[in-house]
Amino acid sequence: MPDLDNCTWALDSHAPAYFSTAFGRRPKVLELVRRFVSDFHDRVVLSAMPSRRRSSPRASQLSMAAHELLENALVYGGPDGGSHFSIAIDPDPEDPANRYLVCIKTRNRADSQQRAVVCQRLHALSEAEDPAAYYIELMTASARRPDGSGLGLARVRVEAQMDLSCVVDGDELEVVARARIPREPGGRG
Questions:
Q1: Cα–chain-centroid distance for residue 119?
Q2: Phi, psi (rounded to 5 degrees) for 58
Q3: Cα–Cα distance for residue pair 134/154, rounded to 1 Å
Q4: Each residue of 52-77: pLDDT tens digit?
Q5: Cβ neighbours for 34, distance < 8 A, ≥ 6 positions apart
Q6: Domains along the chain?
Q7: pTM of the model
Q8: What phi, psi does 59 have (nearest 5°)?
Q9: Residues 6 or more apart from 125 whose CB is under 8 A from it?
Q10: Rg of the chain over CA atoms, in angstroms?
């Protein structure tokens, strides 16, 4: 994992901040990416040195979202296990002085059944009148499910307050989570 304490940061408040990586099936990667996303947010949005004890609340939400999306990519990815992950924190084109647009993406090979399940779940989430109530319904239903809770995407939507979409390109599945977040007082820009 990149050591953010030893990186040189010359961030312009109107320039994007972006990180991308690819890796095989390695469960230990989840925790590394989770910590990185938290530190990345705090460094870019808050202009703060990452704290080893506690992340900002929004950083915690984004790192949870990254963890859920990446875990899905690693668990349900194709036999080669190759997964791609990226996060971008850009000035929001609609209100660059006051907000950022955060975009987290995962991309991996997935079989046709898994691609269909993800697309169906994201469609149901986007159509839900009350995503939080839908999430609670999913939690109740998952208690009887023998394998996998199926809650990760709903958790990202509700707990991280991110909009979700997916793109199918041949046998690859890209899941995208986006959120507009306020610029923090004293933060970059």
A1: 17
A2: -70, -35
A3: 8
A4: 556 788 889 999 999 999 888 887 77
A5: 63, 64, 66, 67
A6: 16-144+151-182 (3.30.565.10)
A7: 0.84
A8: -60, -40
A9: 131, 134, 153, 154, 157, 164
A10: 17
